[in-house]
Amino acid sequence: MDKPVFTIRRAEPSDAEAMRQIFSSPNAIRGTLQLPYPSTENWRKRLAEPVDGSFNLLACAENEVVGQLGLFTFPNHPRRRHVGQIGMAVRDDWQGKGAGSALMQAAIDLADKWLNLSRLELEVYTDNEPAISLYKKFGFVTEGTLQRFAYRDGQFVDVYAMARLREANN
């Protein structure tokens, strides 16, 4: 079978139901800080009224939304303008098929070529080996472990703080 081709585009309010579907997937929700049972209306509001400096990207296979990546910047914080934070999720039935790589490449291109961000950072659960491998593939390194970072499935879990640094362009 041929490898799927993914189109990356910006999320629109009309993508709220697709976002709900992504975050209704058990593995996807387990790997994020989102709560189960997401609301389509909540996603519509989030997409219609984005926070300053946020970029919500979607991975589409043909016309189907299969993954999401948020890149959050700090335009109103002068000492953090060089930083972007990443959060992402891929629908369970599309994990391991390249959607995450397509989203990461798009985010890095946006950060490096358009936003001049010299630091990208993220947190990832220490037991999420597929995601850790993906981030390492794109040059992220582990900077430390944050213990009892989040509550998931009835217990506290740790995350790795990971970052990708590049020389800032003047």
Descriptive account of the structure:
- This protein is of the alpha+beta class and 170 residues long.
- It has a domain at 6-121: Aminopeptidase, CATH 3.40.630.
- It is 26% helix and 36% strand.
- It is built from 5 helices and 7 strands; from the N terminus they run βαααβββαβαββ.
- It has helices at 16-22, 26-30, 40-48, 99-113, 129-137; strands at 6-10, 54-61, 64-73, 83-90, 119-125, 141-152, 155-165.
- Strands 1-2-3-4-5-7-6 form a 7-stranded mixed beta sheet, sandwiched between helices.
- Strand 2 (54-61) and strand 3 (64-73) form a beta hairpin.
- Helix 1 crosses helix 3.
- The longest helix has 15 residues, at 99-113.
- The chain is globular and about 35 Å long.
Task: Briefly characterize the structure.
The chain has 170 residues and is an alpha+beta fold. Helix content is 26%, strand content 36%.
Defining key terms:
alpha+beta; single chain; 5 helices; 7-stranded mixed β-sheet; Aminopeptidase; 170 residues
Calculate the terminal CA-CA distance, rounded to whole Å.
45 Å
How large a portion of the residues is in β-strands, by DSSP E? Answer: 35-45%
What's the average pLDDT? 93
Helix content: 25-40%
The SSE string, one letter per element, is EHHHEEEHEHEE
Question: Any idea of the CATH class of the domain at 6-121?
Answer: Alpha Beta
Can you tell me the CATH topology of the domain at 6-121?
Aminopeptidase
Strand arrangement in the largest pleated sheet: 1-2-3-4-5-7-6
Number of helices: 5
Taking Cα atoms only, what radius of gyration do you get, to the nearest Å? 16 Å
What is the fourth-level CATH superfamily of the domain at 6-121? Gcn5-related N-acetyltransferase (GNAT)
